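Entry: Protein kinase domain-containing protein
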Amino acid sequence: MDYVIQTLHIACALSQSANIPGLDAVVKAGLKLAEMVQETREVQDQCSLLAERAAKYSAAVYCQLTSGTFTLDGVTATRYIDDLIHTLSAIEALMIRRKNAGFVRAFWYRTKAAKEVKTLNGQLDDAFRVFDIQSSIHANQQILTLLQCTEHLLQHAENAEHTQAALLYGNRRIHAGVKEILQRVRVDATHDGTLRLYGREDLELVEELETENTGVMPGEQPVTRFRARICETGREVTVRRFPRPGRKFRDAIDTVKKIWHPNVVHAIGYSREDPEIAFIVNSGVYTHTFNELGKTFHGIDKLLWTVNSTKQILAGLMYLKSVYEELEWPPDEDTQFIQAEKQVVVGADGRVLLDVSCYDLKQLPNTVSHDEGSFTKLEKLSKVHNSLSVIDHPMYNVYRIL
């Protein structure tokens, strides 16, 4: 945090000359949070991490607003700055309450505190995303911005000789240290803290795959999938393009942020703020469907593949049950299907993955339907011994794995 505090101290000294209402309050609030994190650096909880992010965001917002690239009108910019100040004040109040709370009180209210931290994280992301700071974090641009501020002060200072001497000294420090400082404390504008943020220029669409039919309302355009390549690294990914950046897209982002498991398709990023385009980037490209891969096995090999695939599917479902506590397994006498051809995919390495974007996560299935009418029933026999049984219809052979 030392580098964050140094940067915000510099910003406090220069923000007085910037004719931007509320900017000084943003920088001071960020500095206060950074100092509070420094005081409690031995406690690395979610509250401290939230305050640290807020301090770094404040430094980045200062750089963007003073660089001259933020083009909103004065009234709109003031409203966004006020929203950011309100969020920073709420985070500061949370830090103070946490500091003053005793161990028993903190333990008793830990669930409520966790929900408040989650809410403030979302508010901070919303307030910060507006400023579109991706270009403001480069070191060379920061040096130019700070030099412009010092030139402005030189032109309007009452005591030119004294001010010039002080600012020339400050400029020498800026030239020597600002690049290193900003490299350490810059907020990566291509990342929201959980997932990567992509623009259309970052991805090359290679091939259209299929459309999603789950949750499509009458008259609504479906979500379309593409095989794509990340331009910077050449990594192959799958892009889910939404018809518009609306509620469905935001709900999908909230869902994919919670998921990270080797047997569940997970996202690595989504689109930056764009009024026309909304998309989610999934890791990897899936070269086989479940049924296509199953047809390549025969005899005992197919039997072993079916058992292993069932274990992987159950592992993914058990993970989803742990993430979404409200999800319930249907009763044993009530068969709840998952369509393997549509909702289960196979990665290039042969792993079986659940694709939760293809069904609406209201209730976990207990049966996998695949390959022209046959199905595999999943039974949760024992979490402790990690055992399961598989009934494959129409053969009715029972396999038990202990």
